[in-house]
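User: Please fill in residues for this 302-position structure.
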């Protein structure tokens, strides 16, 4: 089986980056895999020290078949950096595995990604393979949810090429209540995140990726037990950090899972939606972002 290249996006979190890389090195096929690392440049003077520390660390990484490091000479921002990096690598290889610097993987993460890419490559209704799953009980070995996801994932060139980054169909979604309800089966924050993106309040590649695959009626395959931990909630540096939430805490699984045929289970969708529904804290954050409340609060504090 031909292994997909791994692309890791890093910025200014040395400790998190080290945890991500060390976990990845423990994967059984790491030494047979090519690793690309995109290091974004500092947004401001305050971030430079940590960006330099990250770059000093990634220069010393070993344990992979080949390591290519791209050090941005200006700050691209997470969305632009990921769109650019993923596009370049997936165009070259045809498939790709993507991680960010706050994701810690199981030793069997790469196996799960590569097997999924191999099994579902010709199943055009499958958008991606995803490594993280919420701590929901009583799920099958693998299952499908419409749309896409972004915490440790893999996809193919044709699925990535199909994304409408301008989201030309947003107006249609905005006035179609039935479509909006279906989109929010993935969580009642989905429309709100896309709305904030279109208003220029956030800069998210992921919500546009999710919406584009939703429109194309594609699905993502998930494991019953998570192959990924997101440890980015224990600081305030994440681009879209919700701040200290333990809701997403899981333990990584080392158990091999069996992939299944594309069948969508309504009960799983309901469990998924219930778990992912927005907390009061998140709803308040949405309104603050939408109406500029954060700027008002900042002025009051100052």
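Assistant: Residues filled in for all 302 positions:
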């Amino acid at each position: 089986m031909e292994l997909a290249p791994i692309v890791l996006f890093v910025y200014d979190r040395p400790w998190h980056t080290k945890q991500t890389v060390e976990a990845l090195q423990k994967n059984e096929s790491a030494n047979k895999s090519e690793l690309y690392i995109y290091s974004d440049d500092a947004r401001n003077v305050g971030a430079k020290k940590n960006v330099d520390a990250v770059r000093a660390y990634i220069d010393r990484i070993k344990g992979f078949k080949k390591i290519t490091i791209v050090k941005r000479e200006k700050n691209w921002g997470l969305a632009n950096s990921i769109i650019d990096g993923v596009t370049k690598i997936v165009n070259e290889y045809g498939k790709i595995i993507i991680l960010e610097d706050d994701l810690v993987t199981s030793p069997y993460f790469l196996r799960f990604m590569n097997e999924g890419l191999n099994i579902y490559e010709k199943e055009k209704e499958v958008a991606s393979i995803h490594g993280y799953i919420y701590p929901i009980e009583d799920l099958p070995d693998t299952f499908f949810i419409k749309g896409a996801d972004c915490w440790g994932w893999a996809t193919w060139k044709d699925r990535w090429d199909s994304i409408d980054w301008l989201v030309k169909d947003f107006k249609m979604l905005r006035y179609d209540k039935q479509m909006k309800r279906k989109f929010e089966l993935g969580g009642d924050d989905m429309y709100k995140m896309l709305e904030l993106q279109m208003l220029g309040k956030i800069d998210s590649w992921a919500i546009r990726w999710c919406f584009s695959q939703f429109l194309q009626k594609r699905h993502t395959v998930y494991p019953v037990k998570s192959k990924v931990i997101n440890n980015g909630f224990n600081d305030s540096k994440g681009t879209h950090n919700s701040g200290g939430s333990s809701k997403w805490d899981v333990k990584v699984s080392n158990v091999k899972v069996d992939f299944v045929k594309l069948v969508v289970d309504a009960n799983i969708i309901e469990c998924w939606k219930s778990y992912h529904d927005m907390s009061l804290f998140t709803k308040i954050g949405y309104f603050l972002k939408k109406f500029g409340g954060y700027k008002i609060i900042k002025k009051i504090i100052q």
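For context: The radius of gyration is 19 Å.
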